[in-house]
Write a structure and sequence with these properties.
Elements lengths: L2 H13 L1 E8 L5 H14 L5 E9 L2 E5 L5 E3 L7 E3 L2 E3 L3 E4 L10 H9 L8 H8 L1 H9 L4 E2 L2 E5 L8 H7 L4 E5 L9 E3 L5 H9 L4 E6 L4 E9 L4 E3 L3 E4 L7 H5 L4 E3 L6 H18 L5 E11 L5 E11 L9 H8 L4 H13 L2
Parallel strand pairs: 1-2, 1-7, 8-18
Antiparallel strand pairs: 2-3, 3-4, 5-6, 9-12, 10-11, 10-12, 13-14, 13-15, 13-17, 15-16, 17-18
Length: 350
């Protein structure tokens, strides 16, 4: 390449905004996050943006460079060297599943540096990451959720096995109150399985939620909103022969995912409305995905109906080519590159 071409390429790169895809994290979902980063890297518009992946693990933050090497990120100003050029990203696309990317910690860091990012803000992230608190909050708005209780590390003795069975019943789910990808989750069928399940979940979170089992159809629905548009994606139905939608079902193909879901149109419309309403109640930003389970219910008039129960909210949903959100975007007839550009530009140009 001639000096003139090099100069032109440099000027062109300087004109483009720089996007840092933030991946990794400090939870068991580290590897899942890196896969999501690869997906997002392939989806983003490389003609429009300079793109880097920044791997975060503890206090080790490194940017991947085009030659395969890594450059240490200066956390004082979120910059790093690419050759002789110091790079300061204009935007952070956060795809850390778990801490510190899904609980508000890294969002607070970027707020301090005045760097816009793809997810909801600190409060929303912290609230949605705490499953029990989120359920109690949304219940006050009329959202249907499963009966649950929380057990905190060091205070396990305050709740007896008999009290759990009396309040929650069997079978039930024992899961980390802060976590994802079904790490540490157990479907408990007998009272003898309760304590081992709680101990297992405590390895992922200092708080454990014990939740009543609901038999029904599991679905998930994605959504994002900008100043120009509100988009609720087609619903996906999740079918697995496993005890529940566990890690193997999610990532090792032991599941059938049907988009759009096989729902009555009236039920599907209610799911879309609930998803959009929850997005607004919380004040979310970027793409979220809400998981539900549909069970038999009764209308206020006493007629049989389908009850839509919220399970949890994912504010940094998986973004590999086969993840739910890319599937739903394709089913909606949209281009994922355009969707991500829409989200980025909405934050870059407030």
């Amino acid at each position: 390449m001639t000096d003139i071409n090099k100069s032109t390429d440099y000027i062109y790169r300087q004109m483009k905004k720089t996007i840092a895809i933030i991946a990794g994290g400090d939870s068991s979902e580290y590897g899942v996050s890196l896969k999501s980063a690869e997906g997002i890297y392939s989806f983003l518009d490389a003609e429009k943006y300079n793109i880097y992946v920044v791997e975060v693990k503890g206090l080790c933050w490194e940017a991947r460079l085009a030659d395969g090497s890594k450059s240490t990120v200066d956390r004082n100003d979120f910059t790093f060297l690419d050759g002789d050029t110091r790079i300061k990203p204009d935007f952070a696309y956060i795809t850390i599943h778990g801490t510190p990317g899904e609980n508000g910690i890294i969002q607070g860091y970027f707020d301090l540096l005045r760097i816009p990012y793809s997810t909801s803000d600190v409060l929303v992230e912290a609230l949605t990451f705490n499953k029990f608190t989120l359920n109690q909050y949304l219940k006050s708005f009329g959202v249907s959720v499963s009966e649950s209780l929380v057990v905190r590390k060091g205070f396990e003795h305050l709740v007896t096995d008999a009290e759990v069975v009396e309040k929650i019943g069997l079978p039930c789910f024992v899961k980390p109150n802060a976590g994802g990808s079904s790490f540490g989750v157990t479907k408990v069928k007998t009272i003898e399985q309760l304590r081992p399940a709680i101990d297992k979940a405590m390895h992922e979170s200092h708080e454990v939620m014990i939740e009543a089992f609901m038999q029904g159809t599991e679905i998930t629905c994605g959504c994002y909103k900008t100043r120009q548009r509100d988009v609720v994606f087609p619903i996906t139905e999740v079918v697995t022969d496993n005890e529940f939608f566990d890690y193997d079902a999610k990532y090792n193909g032991q599941v059938k995912e049907i988009t759009p879901a096989r729902l009555k149109e009236e039920t599907a419309e209610r799911v879309r409305l609930i998803t959009s309403t929850i997005y607004d109640i919380l004040g979310c930003s970027g793409i979220i995905r809400i998981d539900y389970i549909i069970t038999p219910g009764t209308s206020p008039e006493g007629n049989p109906t389908e009850r839509i129960n919220m399970l949890e909210i994912n504010t940094t949903p998986g973004m590999t080519a086969t993840s739910f959100i890319p599937q739903q975007i394709r089913a909606a007839g949209l281009d994922i590159k355009d969707v991500l550009t829409d989200i980025i530009e909405n934050k870059l140009n407030p």
